[in-house]
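=== Per-residue structure ===
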Amino acid sequence: MVFPSKLLNEGEEVVLDLHPHWWFLSGPVSTVVLVLVVSIVALLANVSTSVLWLLVVVLLASLLWLLGRYARWATTEFALTSDRIILRRGVIAKQGREIPLDHINDISYNQSVFERMIGAGDVVIESAGERGQEVFPVLPKPTRIQNEIYRQLEAHKIGQPDRTAGPYQLSIPEQIEKLDELRQRGIITQAEFDSKKTQLLDRL
């Protein structure tokens, strides 16, 4: 599912659009496979009809569990844009959470040894506000997410005026020069540099 463009602000771009890691589905998938194997063995062993009916009920229950979990996976979306982080989830009742980039204080991630092997983990974001800390669980490649958020933070700071400083602000040529430094250091891509440069030149 692609993040809907109608939810973006003017000039805002989607950088990452992710669903939870496939491990989110491992429990019900494993259960369905196990019940299927047991059912096949039971059929070959000519067990009683009552046992077969019991296995059918268990199989249907596990399939419903899998369907429900998949619906949660498909409707849970983590998006990073050039302005904010967005979490949307909910099959029927919808929930949403947004964190503006300029409210973020720190980004970290947690991974067990097994999660490192499969490329999953929890991303933890410290932000200004009532909640303070937000945990985004079971995301794919959390190190990549952390690095991308830092890149967008750097680019966002360059593109926004510094409200804590005095009356002096960087001129547009100076901002473009700073962006070029970020591009040369690999913090932003050539496409991101070109996009920000165009936005700045349009303000001349």
